[in-house]
Amino acid sequence: MTTWTTQDTQRGRDGAWVLALGGASLLAVFAAAAWTRGWALFSLLPPGGGVADVLPTQREDLHRTFFTIWASLLLAAPALALLPLASRSAVAARVWRICWTASLLVFAVHFYWAVVVIFGNDWQRVLNTPRVSAPRLDTVFALWWCVDVLLAWTVRPGALWVRVQRAGVHLLAFVLFFMEAAREGELPVSRALGWGFTAVVVLGLVAWAWRLRRPAGAR
Fold first, then answer.
1. Does any domain span residue 159?
2. pLDDT digits (tens, 9 = 90+) for 107-118
3. The model's pTM
4. For residue 119, what are the domain limits?
5. What DSSP string describes 74-113?
6. Which 8-state DSSP code applies to residue 119?
7. Residue at 219 is within a domain
8. Which UniProt keywords apply (predicted)?
9. What residue ranges in the chain does DSSP mark as E strands?
10. Does any domain span residue 218?
11. Which of 22, 68, 124, 189 is the least buried, fewest Cβ under 10 Å from its Cβ?
12. Are 197 and 173 in contact (CB under 8 A)?
């Protein structure tokens, strides 16, 4: 009973951190979108397209869509970096779960704003606009991410199938965030965020590899 109570209390604290991180990120994003709504930061034309797929009156919503994916990327970076260390450090595991879940919350708002607000929940538009490079894969990723977060809060991570699927969804997250920010980002700041995200993940892998090489019991 004592162990369960302790775990439940810790889970509650971590959940509060998730809400705080996710909520603060969304408040910052919506404030930034309102502040910049008069700026033509992003093109109303899709990449390589000759016809606008976003109305001028949707400028603030377009900014919210871009800013939410940037915020999700920033929250996902420490999660991807810490995943290899999570099995060896309770602190790393907690921070990973908090950041991974908060990133999903912000990504869910991004997904809603892109699909429902910008494209009016018209999946023909979503599937056929060059603005979205891989809509089907993005949707599969979003659903898989939700499943993994649910597992992170309800299932012990030691099971092999949990670890395998978790490695898979994190690898997919890295590929999609990198491609859509570092390689295909519309603005220099987007590409900079993508490369910074990559650097953080690589540093996490280096830290994991270095820790594996340390003698047993070394501090």
1. yes
2. 999 999 999 999
3. 0.90
4. 2-213
5. HHHHHHHHHHHHHTT-HHHHHHHHHHHHHHHHHHHHHHHI
6. S
7. no
8. Membrane, Transmembrane, Transmembrane helix
9. none
10. no
11. 124
12. no
